[in-house]
Amino acid sequence: MPAASTKSAYWQGLRAGLPFLLVVMPFGMVFGVAATEAGLNLAEVMGFSVLVIAGAAQFTALQLMTENAPTLVVLISALAVNLRMVMYSAALTPYLGDAPIWQRALVAYVNFDQNYALSVQEYEARPERPMPEKIAFYFGVTTPLAPVWVLATWLGAVLGMLIPAEYALDFAVPIAFLALVGPALRTLAHMAAALTSVIMALAFVAVPYNLGVLLAAALAMMVGAEIERRMERRG
C-alpha cells in the first residue's frame, strides 16, 4: 500500500474532523466547569475525560452524582448511555475488523460520536478502500478532536469560574448531536426511530435519574428495527 495514499486518507480524515472543533471545544469546557462546580478536583475532572472520553456518559454520571443518586444507579446509567458505543463498534467491525489488534484497541479507546459517524459515512461511500487507508482516515478524524476534548476540559476546570454567566457554553451539546444525527436520517426507519425517541423522551421526562431517555432509546430502536424488517420483507 503506497504510503502516499495512506497519508492522503489521514489528512482527508483530519480535515473532515476539523469543523467539529467548534462544538467539541465548548462541550469540553462545559463539562470542566460543571465538574468543578460539582466539587470534583482537577485530577478527578481530568481523569474523567481521559479515561472515559464520552461526554454524554460523563454528564449523566455527573448529574446523578450531584443529585446524590446511589453509586450503582450512577454506574448503570452511565454505562447505559454509553451502550451506543457497543452499536458503534458493531457497525465498524465489517470495515475495521481485520485490522491488527493493537489498532483495534486504539480505535475502541477513542471511539466517540464524531469519528464513528464520519468514518462510517466514508466507508459506505468508498468501500473499496484498503484497510490501512480506512484506519488512517479514522485516526485522521480523531487527531484534532480527542486532544482538544481533554484540553477543553482542563480549560473549563481551570478557567470556568471566570466565564460570565451570559456567555453560556451549553449550546454546544445539542448542536453537536444534531450535526451528527442529521446526515444519518437517510431512510424511513431512521426517521421513525428519531421521531419515536423525541416523543418518548418527552413522555418519560418525569422518570427519575434520566432513565426515561434510556427507555425512549430502547423503544426507538425497536420501532426502527421493525420498520426496517417490514421494508426488507416488501423488497
UniProtKB/TrEMBL annotation:
GO CC terms, sorted: plasma membrane
InterPro entries: Brnchd-chn_aa_trnsp_permease (IPR011606)
Membrane topology: Multi-pass membrane protein
Keyword Kinase annotated: no
Protein transport keyword on record: no
Transmembrane stretches, start-end: 20-40, 46-65, 72-91, 135-155, 167-185, 191-224
Location(s), subcellular: Cell membrane
Domain of life: Bacteria
Keywords carried by this UniProt record: Cell membrane, Membrane, Transmembrane, Transmembrane helix, Transport
GO annotation, biological process: L-valine transmembrane transport
Cited PANTHER family: INNER MEMBRANE PROTEIN YGAZ (PTHR34979)
Family: Belongs to the AzlC family.
Protein name: Branched-chain amino acid ABC transporter permease
